Amino acid sequence: MNPTGNSPKILVTGGAGFIGSHTVVSLVEAGFEPVIVDDFSNSERSVLDGLRKILGRDVTYYPANCNDASAMEAIFQNESFTGIIHFAAYKAVGESVQQPLKYYRNNLDSLMLLLELMPKYGVQNLVFSSSCTVYGQPEHLPVTESTPRLPAQSPYGNTKAISEDIIRDTVTANQPIKALALRYFNPVGAHPSAEIGELPLGVPANLVPFITQTAAGIRPSLTVYGNDYNTPDGTCIRDYIHVVDLAEAHVQALRKLSESSANASYDVINIGTGRGETVLNIIKTFEQETGVTLNYTIGPRRPGDVEQVYADVSKANQMLDWTASRSLAESLRDAWRWQQKIS
């Protein structure tokens, strides 16, 4: 292991997860030194091997739970962080409806612990993993950061809204913390090396892993939930962003915070492509790019599904000097290459 001694150290909670692992790669490429904290409750240790192959070296990691106060305190004592990217959270919408307390305890307590440790150890910069779920079904599209947040459809979504409020209120209380909450839209794809990618546990809850598992024969067929929405082909519309583009947005957010002369600040930024794609267009594009014909059926609408949502990303473009550059076709090709590797 040969981490560079003078590179700014960034704590990446949940750094073995889908978005976290890709962000670790982008951080190293940008000259930062990521330190992963992950208890592997929603990820696999094999991700560390994938990171080693991409980076040519190990990344420092601690197998700890972000709610374990003594473990986290020891990590802060052992390392000298200049910033934190906080991914660690439970994220299954359906499970959160069944087990709300599990989600509130894990997702909120871990954030509050970090916010307590940051001033104590002189760590000022925080990038928080939020979600476009805070917008619900907006009245007007595309959604901007000033679009009103609507009541969450699930405890998971509510933890994201509450977390944003906790950060805002902590900063307002004159704590020396500079924070950006990135409201993600729909991350897809995989690293082009196919060494890391999305590893859903059990039946995938997201569209693209379900598509790739169906194409690989792991799932017998794909169900499209509803084709009678008020959209061009009747299926739901989402803003799908390549996970590497999303990872690079975190690096830019960290840079923005570190360059700021403010003692304390808080803001929210949409991270997407600014384009909406229907479910059927995702399927059609996947078939075109891979040559694989998908077995899919049309089913009834799913309760709680938003009809359409996509981002206005002008704030991210201007404030972070960042824009999503990878196409939907590239995202789907990368996702399929990753699926073929792990199947």
From TrEMBL:
Protein family membership: Belongs to the NAD(P)-dependent epimerase/dehydratase family.
Domain of life: Bacteria
Protein name, as recorded: UDP-glucose 4-epimerase
Domain spans labelled NAD(P)-binding: 11-334
Organism: Spirosoma terrae
Lineage of origin: Bacteria, Pseudomonadati, Bacteroidota, Cytophagia, Cytophagales
Catalytic activity: UDP-alpha-D-glucose = UDP-alpha-D-galactose
Reported cofactor(s): NAD(+)
GO CC entries: cytosol
Cited InterPro entries: NAD(P)-bd_dom, NAD(P)-bd_dom_sf, UDP_G4E
Biological or metabolic pathway of the protein: Carbohydrate metabolism; galactose metabolism
The protein's Enzyme Commission number: 5.1.3.2
Subunit structure: Homodimer.
